[in-house]
## 1
Amino acid sequence: MLEVVELSKHYKNKKAVKGVNLYLEKGETVGLLGPNGAGKSTTISMISSLIVPTSGDVRIMNESILKKPEKIRNILGVVPQDIALYMDLTAKENLEFFGRIHRISKKELHGKVDEILEIIGLTDRKNDVVKTFSGGMKRRLNIGVALLHEPKLIIMDEPTVGIDPQSRNYILETVKRLNKEKNITVLYTSHYMEEVEYLCDRIYIMDHGEIIAAGTKEEIKNILSAEQSIGIKVDILKGEYLQLLESLPNIKNISVQDPAITLIVPKKVNILKDIFKLAEETNTSVTSVHIETPSLEDVFLHLTGRQLRD
């Protein structure tokens, strides 16, 4: 369906994207992960034909979109990170407006708008002005606009940012349903690792303008197959305790979400004794310790050294 070949974008003082290669098979949902500034948005903009690359190519069904950008525009839907709606129009009016931009006939558009409103769960609010909508409803309408022209491929750039859990779950289920029932191919970026785990068949991890890992969820997790994840919870996180943990040998990675600490260490290393010994020395009360196989989030931290939201 989509192939990105040695795609690069250089600005005067910065190389934003450096030789990215990725592909999407028809009917796949593929995740593109990376911390802020990794180059995801620039890559998406080049795939969408909004930015001309410095070098490389984007091919849709084996045809270069650099030569025929209208080819991808006819089959691509984009859900941008920022809400792209007219706030003083109703939900129905927004869909009708964007439908006309896509040159959908007036006769066909009426039925298409009703169908989209049903998919995104806004039929009962179709005549309400968008500025009265909650954040989650605006996000759902944003998705609806991208579906109007029946795209075969859809790019979703953090479609659940800043919304309530109920709306977020609705959007995730909608994405999954569109992929399975309508066979829409999806390229999905998110700041929520659990969303990518739930939706995606394969994952690309990007940092500093480059793809640094790619594969299925299981293949990505196997990067740390020889390691174990040790989670430590304390009543009050003290800087002295954290510094002593960081100084221990064999620590592959350490991350903190106060009051929890996560260590990545080789499976063959027994570090539990040191954890409690250092806690005693610093008068730190450890409330729980658990050992797990490293998660996708652990692998991401190991590869980038940063939280997904950093």
Note: The first strand starts at residue 2 and ends at 11.
## 2
Amino acid sequence: MHKYLSAENIEYEEIPHVLTMSSAHTAQACHVPGDRLAKAIVLRRDGGYLLAVLPASHHLRLADLRARFGDNIAMAGESEIDQLFADCAHGAVPAAGICYGLDVIVDDGIQMQPDIYIEAGDHETLLHLGRAQFARLTANALHGRISAHD
């Protein structure tokens, strides 16, 4: 992912933090609002995969995705996720699907934030991007309201 970001001249700041195992704990550890931390959820669709990116303070509305894309959308299994993100720690999926050849859908709630934080692929580093840099990272993504605030 770092090579892709460098190749595309996407500017970011690395923010190290204590080991955390959930996006909510990561937001707390980094003193980042949950609305600005992008969590990535891997979904299975038509034999392929889709990465849903939404604020960590939200939950995915799978019914909305199914209404938009069809009933064949389901959560990907852990083994599938581990294969897709083999260079990442288990469960530390970065919100940068393009780096992994995945289609991406970005929730409107995250793309409107002034700055966005994403997983770096481990449980100890966040990448801080400005809104314009995040927009470049997700330029080819679909957009919509796919989540609701917890």
Note: The chain has one domain: 2-149.
